[in-house]
């Protein structure tokens, strides 16, 4: 009988995978555990010292590959949602028995996923949101599951997680709905960069029989495949679309008919930081400065799951680096070893780069929860986290 | 316009008479026509008229469960809003009343759930309460109608009244975020319906409420008196707003300052008077030609004649000129605003409506004043009672601007000039000032002084999210 209990304790230790701890246990501490098993379970807190080796359950699930597959296969998938989907399938593919195990697994794999990306900000929005969601669903699980074992709880959470993704995907139609009053007949909308939210709202407005023109500002890196597709989609809806390059913007603005309704910028963002500044692809800051100087409103269509709980102290490269973005625009060359960088060179280096646009250049954020000023972002985040 | 016709044209007083004698439907029609004909205009009057009509609506609605009340109030509210799209105050009051009904409904449900603080009053008992309430409430309207004569009742003690009326409103506001508001927040993503419906979502909000929402709306018979009480509080709030706003004056206005103000506003006047009780400063008053200069002159000289328009609200009939409080007042034409601005230390303005993003609709010419202040880096302070805080977003700001009598710009007698500019004469009554140029808003809501960036919070706390779209 004694050996059976011993085995049970050993098993539970193994399952918790506190291997280092288990190794450290001498025979006399094991006998301590014998005497007081509840004390041992208390002394293995979920906040294990930060991993040097991997303390979370080992799994052969490759989250980075899964994420990349997801992003490449589905064009409607945004990085935060893809990150959440990856975490969900990680949970589904890993046998888990305790809550702390689950949380440890999620946090290690989230950081693994974030470290693999050049711009981890949008992903971190998703991973943090999902971890927060898990904690809150553990805390307030339905009473029917309060006393059941972990397997049912895990099943419950997995089945609800898909709902979570579904809800997040419903955000874009809502944004389109909220944005409709912004789009007046005969007005001009200037947009920049690839954004699913902007695409959705323009489509919605066209379907609601609004007549408007779109100016697509192309980045210096040229037309990507995704951009070309969305421009083609606009012309399919018979929305008059003009494409101009970034350097033609001020001239194009001056060419708009003065009698027409005032133009506006509507752009998307990959993430929104806590002070209301947005993270977008390179060029947006210039665009926003131009918009401000000619007093054209700049609206940002963004789903609220892209809000990141991270307060930048400035808007420069060092702040981006602090957020984990790895990029470098300036590379001085002496001209001996290389010829001056060609167009192809620029597009390959600056392609995926991002920058921060500060909140005082933004007129309003159009989210699925309504129109908000950049100031309101921090409050939305507080509502989410506390 | 002509003083002789003023007494003949119907206005707020006539409306109050109609309201107390005629059936509800004809009072609604009457107010709609008054609003359409601009015979009731100005945020405060519109707010008062709307509140009175909605109060009557709540009193007269049969079978006063929350659903029915909400439906009825929004029906009437929509009619009024459509009649006066240029007066956001109407919509604001409608939303406030709807908010009160929703709050009371929520409190009721919470009450019946947690225990029986709502149940002791039986069906019959509460009915009699309601019927008692009606004549009383009609009496409650008169203070506004009769002005000073009946005032002691309403204004005997503005500060205690403030103390008593504020807390229930605040508690109802703070109760909101845990309720339906949470659904529209971002939290909706991370909470799933199984949790919500099982009632575990708000353990802090309603402690120990295990029973699900069993309360049928039919048994909420004590809703009506509570709602009526709430609506009356709105009236008190509107009347006390100026005084409450002026309470912040001493912190904002310092000795030896030069304050620029524009157009005639009693709220600003009271604000400055309050500051004048302790401080010595200079006021530079721009007259706001052509729409408001006569009123401005009257305000400055103290010759504001209350009999001139019989509609003056009780608090409005009396105003002391600033000079009598020992303030040196300099009146300047509008054209001199920019020149004088360099001397100013502060600009205090009134608004017609303040929108959620911090933009405002104000007397025409205000934009010039604000832009001049921005140019000289002079802080701008806007006084905004809560009934002027509108939750709408300025999608089309130019629609909010109303045009007035073009004859004030170029007199109709001046045929030569009129022929010359045949179609070119316009007299906008309001300016739309986009967000970002106003530094502070002073409201009669609890934070009192808010920076423009956080105005959205004050506005949001005023209304329920369900009512934002009417």
Overall description:
The complex is a heterodimer of chains A (386) and B (470). Chain A is built from 17 helices and 10 strands. Chain A is an alpha/beta fold and 386 residues long. In chain A, helix 5 (63-73) crosses helix 6 (79-93) and helix 6 (79-93) packs across helix 7. Chain B has helices at residues 3-6, 12-21, 24-36, 43-60, 66-83, 88-114, 123-146, 151-155, 158-175, 181-184, 193-197, 223-246, 249-252, 266-276, 293-301, 337-341, 366-375, 415-420, 455-462; strands at 258-262, 282-286, 328-332, 346-350, 353-355, 360-363, 380-383, 389-390, 430-433, 440-442, 449-451. In chain B, a hairpin with a 6-residue loop joins strand 10 and strand 11 (449-451). In chain B, helix 4 (43-60) packs antiparallel against helix 5 (66-83) and helix 9 packs across helix 12. The chains are: A alpha/beta (386), B alpha/beta (470). The interface between A and B is medium-sized, with 34 and 29 residues.
Map the helices and strands.
The complex is a heterodimer of chains A (386) and B (470).
Chain A (H helix, E strand, L loop, with lengths): L1 H15 L2 H6 L2 H9 L1 H6 L20 H11 L5 H15 L5 H17 L5 H19 L10 H20 L1 H9 L7 E6 L3 H12 L4 E7 L6 H12 L4 E5 L3 H7 L8 E4 L3 E2 L5 E4 L2 H10 L4 E4 L15 H6 L20 H8 L3 E4 L6 E4 L2 E3 L3 H10 L1
Parallel strand pairs in A: 1-2, 1-4, 2-3, 4-7, 7-9
Antiparallel strand pairs in A: 5-6, 6-8, 9-10
Helix pairs in contact in A: 5-6, 6-7, 6-8, 6-9, 7-8, 10-11
Chain B lengths: L2 H4 L5 H10 L2 H13 L6 H18 L5 H18 L4 H27 L8 H24 L4 H5 L2 H18 L5 H4 L8 H5 L25 H24 L2 H4 L5 E5 L3 H11 L5 E5 L6 H9 L26 E5 L4 H5 L4 E5 L2 E3 L4 E4 L2 H10 L4 E4 L5 E2 L24 H6 L9 E4 L6 E3 L6 E3 L3 H8 L8
Parallel strand pairs in B: 1-2, 1-4, 2-3, 4-7, 5-8, 7-10
Antiparallel strand pairs in B: 5-6, 6-9, 10-11
Helix pairs in contact in B: 2-4, 2-7, 3-4, 3-5, 4-5, 4-6, 4-12, 5-6, 6-12, 7-12, 9-12, 12-14
